[in-house]
Amino acid sequence: MFQLMPYFLGSHRFTGGVLTALGLLLALAAPANELWLEPVRFWVAPGTRVHIRRLTGTGFRGETWTGKRSRITGFWQYAPGQPPTDILVTAASADTLQSTLTLQQPGTHLVALTTDNAFVTLSAPDFTAYLQQQDLGYVQALRQQRGSPDKPAREAYRRCAKTLVQVGAALPTDTARTWARVLNLPLELVPEQNPYTLAPGAAFTVRVLRAGRPLAGQQVVLWHRGSRPGALLSKLRSNQNGRVLFRLSEPGEYLASAVRMEVAPGGLAADWQSTWSTLSFGLAGKKKL
Fold it and tell me: Which Pfam families is this protein grouped with (predicted)?
């Protein structure tokens, strides 16, 4: 199920109305959580062992995702010029997963993770508030058309997460272009420039793909963690070619995210299918290695 961000109540007493409001906040926080991959360091020297954290939360602030190994449908490491490595084969059991990787090959490495569906049911008011929070107004319009705006909603949700890690110096002449590899995920964010070769203030284009095909009109959110932690930089929608153009304002760590919701396909025990996608990377202000 969804992972909740902690709410510390301490020794305070709350009235019934406050507790009701807190319950609503908790209900809304659950579906809105994102899953992303985040290395302990985005820049490392060749041969370094790097732990790839699996985090869940909001606003680029998260805690460890506690989902079981059995929920992960794919976990891959892509090194420049090398065949992909299946990280799942290192799992000791169905409930454990080792995600500390040795990054030998110089260049920009790509790590990707996908999960299967989990399910949640929300009351009509909570689901409406959730849609508003995620700017999914088109789903509310579909609910109106289907005559179900006042009914509880059962959602199936899955996640696709990618991260880029720079090993050694970033070279503009990188011919492997592993960072731009299309993985044909259900929902995928693909950079058109290698962020590790960019300077602060540079333009950065992301393509939004649904099963490998450009997706128009999809909102993509860009977060930045640097001198202003958790700062929301931009909310933009993709053009007819699935492209979104951002400006990387300053050095630090970045997270791009998108969520798409559609009517659940037949055979799935849900009303709606949502797919969450993230891409994390770093931007250097000066030479890192």
Answer: DUF4198
